[in-house]
Amino acid sequence: RGPLISVNCAAIPRELIESELFGYEKGAFTGASHAGKKGLVEEASGGTLFLDEIGDLSPEAQAKLLRFLEDGEFYRVGGTRRLRASARVVSATNKEIEELVRKGVFREDLYYRLAVVRVAVPSLAERQEDILPIARHFLVEFSRKFGRAVARFSPEAGEALLAHAWEGNVRELRNVVERAVLTGKGDEVSAADLRLGPGGAGARPAGTGGGAPAPPLTPAGVDLASIQESIEKRYIGDALRLAGGNETKAAQLLNVNYHTFRYRRKKLGL
């Protein structure tokens, strides 16, 4: 019956996530409010706390969250008074959380505490019946946003939407429809407006080097590391072009957090 409080763990700096979740007392750190502040855990009391991108939570915040999940107790940053709150906790991640546990990046005990009920969300390509309804939703949204009287997709455009791989899931679909509404002509989105075919900006990335296919595996073997690096370069380069150079949007297209995107881009020299 209470509020739904949502927090993106990847969007808050690691040094601030604890104070955002659990609040802080006055004078807890430089710049802290004189009155202190309630955290999101307290704000969600009696309702639901949604932790998006839970895989990006810092080790310190993981420990505090585990304590809260175990007994409903927590301390504000800089505080000595034990507080209690009761909230439903829902978390989400696009990472392989089990792999993070194996690497010691994510606490195993917290993982099992969170994974009481798991819901695996299938990719858009696995939910073909959802593609056109979601695309029509975006069509209405962007027609209003850009002041365009675009009413429908042509039959050919609908077929192209259903045939596409949608490796970027709903974010990619949103991007494709937004561009089609912005750059298309008339009151109908054509297949050409979507640019999902070979060489199109919305197509499966063809790569900066002309989209050469990966070499086949032969008895002589292949250099898997160099193939992976080449593919990653292609996708990062194409994501940056689709996003107009905006790294935040490019990271969203690739379903990775911003800091991971920046790290990989720098490491690959892009």
Layout of SSEs?
Elements: E1 4-8, H1 14-22, H2 40-43, E2 48-52, H3 59-71, E3 73-74, E4 83-84, E5 88-91, H4 97-102, H5 108-114, H6 128-146, E6 152-153, H7 155-163, H8 169-183, E7 188-189, H9 191-194, H10 224-242, H11 247-253, H12 258-267
Parallel strand pairs: 1-2, 2-5, 6-7
Antiparallel strand pairs: 3-4
Helix pairs in contact: 3-5, 6-8, 10-11, 11-12
Description:
- The protein is mainly α.
- It is built from 12 helices and 7 strands.
- The strands form 3 sheets. The protein has a 3-stranded parallel sheet with strand order 1-2-5. It has a two-stranded antiparallel ribbon with strand order 3-4.
- Strand 3 and strand 4 (83-84) form a beta hairpin.
- Helix 3 (59-71) packs across helix 5 (108-114), helix 6 packs across helix 8 (169-183) and helix 11 crosses helix 12.
- The radius of gyration is 23 Å and the shape is globular.
- Mean pLDDT is 82; it is low at 198-212.
